[in-house]
């Protein structure tokens, strides 16, 4: 009835309340996805148009609605840091050292480095990281008119010239969580596997190239690690300094296989033993854009409890013959890391 009276002009419709058509001003922003940190959301972080907006929460440098992906390269050098009985591989007839494994120059090798992180909630991340160096490589040749002595078997080789060829590969994969117990200091808790594979070959260089010994040493390390990834300076700023420290005790499934041409025989042995892996890093990160950051710095990793290629012959007795495996070697890796981080 009221509608009909209004239509006929017999009565007038009541005026709308002043607030009914007024445009409201938002009082509070609500993040529609969990952020990677607990910093407040601000209007200036809104991408897109006025028709479609969503807030982007800040985490330190302003990264991430959901997670980050880093891709880049690791450039490392490898050093042997533990002197074993066979470290001085070749000696001259007067007992002078001709080749020491610690003096071999592997140079620096580059490999891929990828990290993927997802925010589970405002104070917990899930992270994966993989990197590898395909092949460190070093060679050396020793000469002595009286005959070169190979320390591995403590025997003299007839040829006055001997050559060695040594290569090593490194693979690392880790998965874990990063709870933020302390602001700007994520704790690292997770599982990691590291593989170190080595090849060592020895041969006569004169009068013709003749292979005498070939060793393959494989190390499969599995275990848990604990660490931290603090922001050391500039938290929340475009330019900042970050670091990390991680360590763990691992189980190492080590295996060595050595062929000796003198007996035309291959010696094979396996052993399980505990090993240690420690890693340190220091980086400078620069946020070039809200969606990506460049990062570069230094990384060091030390592994103890390895079966290394040149050291396996000391565990072999040619008289019986009897095989064995030597697993007290160490390796030090250090060098540069450069990555680009993308936000999604």
Précis, in short:
With 344 residues, the chain is mainly beta. 2% of the residues lie in helices and 57% in strands.
What topology does this entry show?
Layout: H1 2-8, E1 67-79, E2 88-91, E3 97-100, E4 108-121, E5 124-143, E6 148-150, E7 155-157, E8 161-179, E9 187-204, E10 210-228, E11 231-233, E12 239-260, E13 265-289, E14 292-306, E15 329-343
Antiparallel strand pairs: 1-4, 1-15, 2-3, 2-6, 4-5, 5-8, 6-7, 8-9, 9-10, 10-12, 11-12, 12-13, 13-14, 14-15
Explained architecture:
With about 350 residues, the chain is mainly β. It has a domain at about 70-110 and about 135-175 and about 190-335. Helix content is about 0%, strand content about 55%. It is built from 1 helix and 15 strands, in the order αβββββββββββββββ. It has a 10-stranded antiparallel barrel. The protein has a 4-stranded antiparallel sheet with strand order 3-2-6-7, with no helix packed on it. The longest helix has 7 residues, at about 1-10.
């Amino acid at each position: 009835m009221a509608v009909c009276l209004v239509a006929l002009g017999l009565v007038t419709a009541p005026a709308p309340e002043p607030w009914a058509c007024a445009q409201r001003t938002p009082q509070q922003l609500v993040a529609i996805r969990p952020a990677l940190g607990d910093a407040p959301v601000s209007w200036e972080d809104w991408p897109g148009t006025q028709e479609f907006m969503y807030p982007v929460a800040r985490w330190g440098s302003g990264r991430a609605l959901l997670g980050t992906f880093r891709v880049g390269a690791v450039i490392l050098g490898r050093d042997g840091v533990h002197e074993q009985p066979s470290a001085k591989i070749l000696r001259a007839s007067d007992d002078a050292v001709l080749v020491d494994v610690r003096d071999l120059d592997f140079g620096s090798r580059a490999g891929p480095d990828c990290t993927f992180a997802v925010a589970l909630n405002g104070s917990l991340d899930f992270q994966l990281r993989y990197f590898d160096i395909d092949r460190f490589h070093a060679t050396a040749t020793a000469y002595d008119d009286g005959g070169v002595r190979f320390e591995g078997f403590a025997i003299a080789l007839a040829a006055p010239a001997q050559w060695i060829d040594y290569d090593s590969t490194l693979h690392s994969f880790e998965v874990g969580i990063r709870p933020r117990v302390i602001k700007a200091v994520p704790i690292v808790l997770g599982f990691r596997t590291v593989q170190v594979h080595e090849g060592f070959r020895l041969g006569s260089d004169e009068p013709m190239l003749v292979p005498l010994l070939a060793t393959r040493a494989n190390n499969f390390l599995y275990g848990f690690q604990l660490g931290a990834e603090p922001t050391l300076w500039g938290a929340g700023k475009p330019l900042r300094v970050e670091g990390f420290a991680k360590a763990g005790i691992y189980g190492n499934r080590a295996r060595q296989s050595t062929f000796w041409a003198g007996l035309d025989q291959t010696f094979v042995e396996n052993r399980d033993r505990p090993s240690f892996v420690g890693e340190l890093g220091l980086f400078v990160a620069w946020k070039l854009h809200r969606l990506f950051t460049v990062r570069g710095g230094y990384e060091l990793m030390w592994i103890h409890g390895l079966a290394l290629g040149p050291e396996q012959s000391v565990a072999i007795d040619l008289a019986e013959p009897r095989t064995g495996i030597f697993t007290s070697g160490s390796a030090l890796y250090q060098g540069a890391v450069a990555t680009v981080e993308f936000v999604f």
